[in-house]
Specification:
This protein has about 280 residues and is α/β, with parallel strands linked by helices. The protein has one domain: Rossmann fold, CATH 3.40.50.1820. It is about 40% helix and about 15% strand. Strands 1-2-4-3-5-6-7-8 form an eight-stranded mixed β-sheet, sandwiched between helices. Helix 2 packs across helix 3 and helix 7 packs antiparallel against helix 8. The protein is globular, with a radius of gyration of 17 Å.
């Protein structure tokens, strides 16, 4: 399966690994694409797992609606449900990083019967994040979120000088040069960065759909060197999971866990998947 359809939108997806393996959906964040998991997926395949990694809404050229309202969290989660349906999967293990992690938390909270296990990379439970904004340094760490919600200005700033600011930001975070070039090149294509930023711009529109407690087995992996996501929200996350929960702290890793802690992350995901019982439904 190279593409799947959700309504009028057509999504690119990398479906690879053993066809009869336990299915693992990999959801990327900003400003990445499914290529964020290119180094991780082969290790999962060697463990007998099948991976489905879509270029999410706004990142797939055929799934780039205009206007911020099209990027509400409910719409993003419905895209993942459409992927599962297209693949004929009643449920799957779900791994999400950055914005993909937020989508994964919401999917597990709203549709637990479709999620066998949840692995959240970097991003804490959204309610824990909200809690931490009021009593830690998380508000300072998240200051860029407000900037990204402005119209037009973020695009101009990030893409000036052939994407110099975006390139520098990613490079300072430790991403290898080849991945920096890949992500910046994609964001420079017409409409791509605006679509990606619309995930942030839709935040004020998603208040009526809170993400509640998660009742599926959950693994949270956090890099202690992450400049964007602090310890307070990470440690508060356990209170919002009612099933088995484990936190793994990668002391020497920053935000870009799929790319920079590939081997350890693959080991953790594989072990987590194997703790799950028979598929639901």
């Amino acid at each position: 399966m190279d593409t799947f359809r959700h309504g009028d939108l057509v999504f690119d997806v990398r479906d690879s690994g053993p066809a009869d393996g336990e299915p693992v959906v990999l959801l990327h964040g900003f400003p990445q694409d499914a290529g964020a998991f290119d180094r991780l997926s082969p290790a999962l395949h060697q463990a007998g797992l099948r991976t489905l990694a879509p270029d999410q809404r706004g990142y797939s050229p055929g799934a780039r609606p205009t206007g911020r309202s099209a990027y509400r969290l409910r719409a993003v989660v419905d895209d993942v449900l459409a992927l599962l349906d297209a693949a004929g999967l009643p449920s799957a293990h779900v791994v999400g990083h950055d914005w993909g992690g937020i989508a994964a938390w919401a999917l597990a909270a709203w549709h637990p019967w479709r999620v066998r296990t949840l692995t959240a990379l970097s991003v804490p439970h959204p309610a824990a994040m909200t809690q931490a904004l009021g009593h830690s340094d998380q508000a300072v760490r998240s200051a860029y979120v407000g900037f990204f919600q402005l119209p037009a200005v973020p695009e101009a700033a990030l893409l000036a000088g052939q994407g110099a600011l975006l390139r520098r930001t990613l490079g300072q975070g430790g991403l290898p040069a080849d991945l920096v070039d890949r992500y910046v090149d994609r964001m420079r294509r017409p409409g791509a960065l605006t679509a990606a930023l619309n995930w942030y711009r839709a935040l004020p529109l998603s208040g009526g759909a809170p993400v509640g407690p998660v009742s599926v087995p959950t693994l949270h992996v956090w890099g202690a060197q992450d400049p964007y996501l602090g310890r307070a929200a990470t440690e508060a996350t356990a209170a919002f999971v009612t099933a088995a929960y484990a936190l793994e702290v990668l002391e020497e890793t920053g935000h870009w866990i799929p790319e920079l802690a590939t081997e350890r992350t693959a080991e953790l995901i594989t072990a987590h998947v194997r703790t799950a019982g028979p598929p639901r439904g």
